[in-house]
Amino acid sequence: MLASRWLGHPRFLLAFRLLAALCASVPLLFLVSGIAVQSLGPDPGQEVTESLGLAAFQLLIATLCMTPLKRWTGWVGWIRIRRMLGLFAFFYATLHVLAFLQFILGWTDLWATFTKRPYIVMGALSFLMMIPLALTSTKGMMRRLGKNWKQLHKLVYPTVFVAWVHFIWQARSDVGEMVFYGLVILVLLAVRWKRAGSRQMIPFVRG
């Protein structure tokens, strides 16, 4: 009982949110420090782009973990940081896109290059699906959309899958990390499907 009160205390929940925000900021802090001391290797632009994309992908997966963690532990604190982690994922994804355009793809003749690389199409599709999720993440938008908010936010499931395709499609020889992430995503989706059914995972389809 004492532990339950302690875990539910507003100050503890605030501290947990701050800790989660700090952890989500670590990839950016490492990149900034790496740039400052010039320790990002022979191709810093490539390193920055890949690190930002991986951080966005990892945080997107983390948002899917929050509901199962809440159910398994019974602690509401996991849900309290879910939207924040989603916004961090979108923040890193935006930086990833900008870095990709600046350091790798370039800003000229975008369409020709875009259509020649299927993994870019998958990355762009995943990013586009993240935009409405980020724009409707506030409590005000939740109230305005009502039941439609949940329907819209089912987009997170195809988003994370397409993001995984984006990463594994561009992987060359070392695909072990992406295979691991794929298994994690598969388990999370299977847990959701077993509990709520497939209709609860398809955007804009009411269960």
Present the secondary structure layout:
Elements (H helix, E strand, L loop, with lengths): L1 H6 L2 H28 L6 H30 L3 H4 L1 H24 L4 H7 L1 H18 L3 H7 L1 H6 L3 H15 L5 H21 L11
Helix pairs in contact: 2-3, 2-5, 3-5, 3-10, 3-11, 5-7, 7-10, 10-11
Question: What can be said about this structure in brief?
Answer:
By secondary structure, the chain is mainly α.
What brief labels describe this structure?
207 residues, mainly alpha, 80% helix, single chain
Strand proportion, as a percent range, falls in: under 5%
Rounded to an integer in angstroms, the radius of gyration calculated over CA atoms is 18 Å
Task: Supply the helix-strand structural class.
Answer: mainly alpha
Helix content: over 70%
Which regions have little confidence, pLDDT < 50, spanning 5+ residues? none
Order of helices and strands: HHHHHHHHHHH
**Count of helical stretches:** 11
What is the total domain count?
Answer: 1
Overall geometric form = globular
Number of strands: 0
Amino-to-carboxy terminus distance: 36 Å
Q: Averaging pLDDT over every residue, what do you get? A: 87
What profile does the largest beta sheet have?
A: none
Describe the structure.
- It is globular and about 50 Å long.
- It is built from 11 helices and no strands.
- The longest helix is centred in the N-terminal third of the chain and has 30 residues, at 44-73.
- The chain has one domain (2-201).
- The protein has helices spanning 2-7, 10-37, 44-73, 77-80, 82-105, 110-116, 118-135, 139-145, 147-152, 156-170, 176-196.
- With 207 residues, the chain is mainly α.
